[in-house]
Amino acid sequence: MSQPRRKQSKKHDAPGQVAIAGVHPVRVALSQSRVSEIWIRDGANEHRLRDLVAIANSQGVRVIDVASRDFDQAVASDTNHQGVMAFTKPREMEPENALPILLDGLDNPLVLVLDGVTDPHNFGACLRSAEAFGAACVIVPKDNAAPLNQVARKTSSGASELIPVVKVTNLARCLRGLQQDGFWVVGAAGESTVGLDEASHNGPMALVMGSEGSGLRRLTREVCDALVAIPMPGHIESLNVSVATGVLLYDLQNRRGALHASRAYEERV
């Protein structure tokens, strides 16, 4: 199926490359022509990977058979790699003028907006949740935001290479622009008494998450159409921003009918 070769090293040593694993993530990266090399794990399902290999061959991407031991040492233990891993050029943040292009033609998209999330671990975890629950993109301010660095990329478990991250100069202005385009903007605020059912919206939607310490900034808060809090009957009064992001993305997308378990299952098995 590919060019037989056994890798002896535990790491891929090509400079400036990041690894992503799994059939769907690798297919997305191939569609963006960012893949330099693909590893196929010894014993992987050849039928499932046939289309990926054909695409890679058509692009001149090297495909290598790798011993299961070496493959497993190169991929995170909790990653559902499905026997395939690709090495790609890192995806960088998109400029603000790319946002209309990214949203054009999408049916009722949801975007995640991070207002002042500065910790790369939290940033990466938010990217992971955004990609997992089908957000169209993630929007961050130019200043007072975590960098898309190695820590964020690693924490995202490959999501940073799949979901667009758009950097904007003025976040409040960007949100007002989204509202003019029909987006319902919901901000997360622990003191809110608005229920999740009241905050949900079937049309285009933006979920805005505040910083790890002080939450949403005043101007951002004032732009929001609604503020929502996660009901927590326990003694803990707040959640880490990345955990709260995952909870809200799941709940809102589920209420919007945007989660299709059967399709997700087909892509992962």
Key words describing this protein structure:
single chain, 269 residues, alpha/beta, 60s Ribosomal Protein L30, Chain: A, Alpha/beta knot, 2 domains, six-stranded parallel sheet, disordered C terminus
What composes the largest sheet? Answer: 6 strands, parallel
Which structural category do the helix and sheet elements fall into? alpha/beta
Q: What integer is the average pLDDT?
A: 85
Distance between the termini: 20 Å
What's the CATH superfamily of the largest domain, by name?
SPOUT methyltransferase, trefoil knot domain
User: Major sheet: order of its strands?
Assistant: 8-7-6-10-9-11
Q: Which CATH C-level class of the largest domain is it?
A: Alpha Beta
CATH topology of the largest domain: Alpha/beta knot
| Poorly predicted spans | 1-11, 262-269
Question: Could you characterize what this model shows?
Answer:
With 269 residues, the protein is α/β, with parallel strands linked by helices. It folds into two domains: 86 residues, Ribosomal protein L30/S12 (60s Ribosomal Protein L30, Chain: A); 165 residues, SPOUT methyltransferase, trefoil knot domain (Alpha/beta knot). Helices cover 36% and strands 18% of the residues. The strands form two sheets. The chain has a six-stranded parallel beta sheet with strand order 8-7-6-10-9-11, with helices on both faces. Helix 5 packs parallel to helix 10. The N terminus and C terminus are likely disordered.
Mind sketching the topology for me?
Blueprint lengths: L2 E2 L13 E4 L1 H9 L3 E7 L4 H13 L3 E5 L1 H7 L9 E5 L10 H5 L6 E5 L5 H13 L5 E4 L8 H6 L9 E4 L2 H10 L3 E5 L7 H4 L5 E5 L8 H6 L2 E3 L12 H15 L5 H8 L1
Parallel strand pairs: 1-4, 3-4, 6-7, 6-10, 7-8, 9-10, 9-11
Antiparallel strand pairs: 2-5, 3-5
Helix pairs in contact: 1-2, 5-10
